[in-house]
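Reviewers of the previous submission asked for a worked example of the structure-prediction workflow described in the proposal, so we include one complete record here. The input consisted solely of the amino acid sequence. No template or homolog information was supplied to the procedure at any stage.
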Amino acid sequence: MAQQVLDKSINFKGSTITVQQFIQQVKAQQSLQFTFDEEVNAQFTKTVRIRKNTASLKEALDWLASDANIQCRIVNNYAILSMKPAPSQKKQDAAATIPAANEIPAPSTKNLGEVVVTALGIKKSERNIGYAISQLSSKDVSDVPQTNVMNSLAGRVPGVSIRATGSDPGSSVMVTIRGQSSISKDNQPLYVIDGVPVAPAIQNPAQAVDGKQTIDYGSPISDISADDIASITVLKGASAAALYGSRAGSGVILITTKSGAAKKGLGVSFNSTAMFDQAYMFPHFQNEFGSGDWYGTDNTLSTGAWGPKLNNGLKYVQWNSPLDANGKPIPLEWKSFPNRVKDFFRTGQTFTNNIAVSKSGDAGNFRISYANMQNQGIVPNTDMKRDNLTFSGTYHMNKSIHVSTNLAYTNNRSKNRPSAYTESVTMQVYKLTPNVDINALRNYWVPGKEGLQQYNPYSTDDNPYLIAYEETNSYTRNRITGNVQLTFDLRKDLSLMLRTGLDYYALQEDQRRPFSAKRNPKGAYVLENDHFKEQNSDFLLTYKPALENKFKVSVAVGGNRMDQQSQSNQQSTASLTLPGVYNLSNAAAGSIINAQGSSRKRINSLYGMGEVSYDNALFLNLTARNDWSSTLPKANNSYFYPSVSMSAILSDLLNIRWRELSYLKLRANWSQVGSDTDPYSLYNTVPFDTDWGSVKRATISFSQKNSQLKPEIATSYEAGVDASFFNNRVGFNVTWYKTNNRNQIIQVPTTIASGASTMLINAGNIQNSGWEVGLNLVPVHANGFTWKSDVNFTKNTNKVIELTPAVTSYMLGSTDGSNIQYLIKEGTKMGDFYSRSWVKVKEGPYAGQALLNSNGLQQQDADFVKIGNYNPDFMVSFNNNFHYKNFTANFLIDWRQGGQYYSYVAKSLIQDGRTTNTLFGRDKAHGGLEWTDANGVKREDGMIMPGVIANADGSYRPNDVIIDAATYYDNKYWKYYENETYSATYVKLKEVSITYAFGKQVMRKLPFISNLSLSVIGNNLYTWTKANNGYDPEITMSLSSQRYQGVGHWTLPGTRSYGVKLSCNF
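From that input alone, the workflow returned the following structure tokens.
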């Protein structure tokens, strides 16, 4: 096979071309994948003389070896480039080497000699690196494109947990690398685009004007179009991220965008995707009983669903009963509407189109791209639109001076984003009783009172269509990111890089609430303008001397200045004068509230790195960085972050030439990175409050700042092995790590004599340790059919090693009226959440059973007990690729095992009798007991609470008190949160794609098109959950930060997506 490849003819353009152009021209005519290391990459500007316009690949590779000193080994469809050894070291002339037939492997489980992007955007060969690193290609993120590209990491990167705040395509995504390590920070990684750090990827959901709803306006990282990404690199360990210093405490995600260097000459690419979202994960609603306070009641106007049995041929007065001539409501047929929830949600649509023009020549290259995304959400009247315009270019001013730039402008906007949390549209739809027809609510104004009075089934709730069409949450985010870089080749072995980059966005939010909204009966309006700017300027001086032996040395020194500014200005009113007029001039007198905030931060840094290698098989890497942060006191603002890593290619060092073993690498590292604090944490300030008439007011904080704060310090150890067997048909990588994060910045109680109730201190030690395993297989490669499979396994163990002697328990936060508390104690884990349980018998034959009161009801205990932890026991993903002729199929399975989540939604729906797990006991047919209540009414909805009742003598007897079903479920579920805490285990068919690449017969008829493919794609097509309750455990509501995972709180239902994608190149 290799000989056939080498004999094929190549047509060259130009008499003298660069190495990069040589590779591009060969790739355009041969189906070869070139792999090379950093050494080869550094030779791309060298020239190759073309002896004749048409030559065999073997002849051309001889020219490459002669002129550029680069040898090539053909292995199946791989062209493996490396530098020719010096004559004294030369074992064989490997230029155009042809392996023996029995050595030709199937497609490799990994890209041999793979070049990966590391810290500061430096490209290195995978073999040089002494730490675990994961890199996704453009194909990984664009085959099944996601509106928020961070969703593409799910199931693909060991050690990385991805959780969305909602199922809407524009929802933010929380990314956690190797567990949570910080008590006070949000545990989100640093994001770097083309070498320049950018705004945080997740921001807290905005609080709505009604004080209950929250609105997720999306994160700035979601502004990037998947079609513009060349690669995403995840730096997981502290050694990988150490060069980013105090900003890299939770890892780093490097995003490299596409350039025009990939193809010689002019090129045009076009991608078009249509995706359709379908809500399909709903709570298990019951449709047998309608509105009512308890079974048999005549109060069929109740918001509860404990009323008479539906579909019994009877008629009752209902919420929409018309009035007769005497003004009395007319009974209507008592029937259920089982599709009342599904009928509200529509099929979401997302259409994305991207066109890019690129050109590459001797003087440089460029790429300009435009992308347009238009989304209609599953909630009526919700949408999102995005326009991306990007430019990247490189110009070689001469052989020694090169200038490059990356610029991107994004306009992201929505007329209405869906709300979550209490009073949201999801809550109002889910709380409809089974006898309410959702379609009867579409005309949401009372006739004749349009704009003044809503039409709704319950006086306590809003019409969901009113929320969708009138309670709007619009926004516009304009964002500019980019950098300009100058590279000077001062000598053959010495180069200088200068770079400056900018990330700026302006965000305008607009919230509107109409008259008769339950929490804003006189309407409300909020207008907020936020601005964020971050500028980074760098220099890097690199020296790579040429040594006349097997040793190679590379050293570099550099520096960075980061300036960050943010500003917020909000004006709001909770009372309008005229309905439907949304501007501040329509605010009722004295109702306008102004709120402003701003912050500034600067970090100055110097860093250095060095690498020593022996025989391209043994590598030692050292890095060091010193940061000076403006958020820390002068006495403590200078901190040093070192790292050391080693890698050894044992298969080369020991000259192993076993047919079974293709590659064996050992790696290990140690490092320290840090994390500073937020601005203005050193000294107390007195912010001004809203004026009280003519009197100026200010707010005194009872939280004492600390002028002696130090940064958090994470010390990390890591070791691993990478191996491949049977000519790379089987490969695996195993990584063990341990990280201790000390000097946590936390609030602790202090004496009232200090004038404050709490103060900031450095304390605590949080440890994360774990294993990451990757298995890469090519199980089948025969008769034109290839099956490649990747399996990833992640297990992280978290432990609170210590807090501080004065604090034995620390509350990170709480939710649901402080009934759910996130607590940490020494010896426990981050992610534990606690609540009060019911009183239990402590000893004797009934030990552990519920101790009920004389009415047969549970009693709440005073102490908080652990009821769950939202972190998984382990995560596994299974990614498969099948290729046969022109067809390629991919599917990704994501398995998350263990962990728990609390569902406020389940608690509310059960208490109101809306779900199927409240059917038992409602009547005799459902297991209810016959009994007579205190009013002498004979009923058959009796139930007995499990437990015992205390006798007068201190002994206990089994409970025999009969209570009605509504009281039973209310008592069992409303106060006792462990009953609504469920397993978070799930298995998802995360991604599916089937692609057909049109063959030569079609391409001959379309000579202007070089590649054309059509794909059928899907996302989250199937979900299995251990809890089997209709809730998606992957979607959690982050109330204020990463600390509040594991809370199901009126988010949108889980969705599945399916669609098509067309790709072509010209």
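Residues 86-113 have pLDDT under 50 and may be disordered. We consider this example representative of the routine output the project will generate in years two and three.
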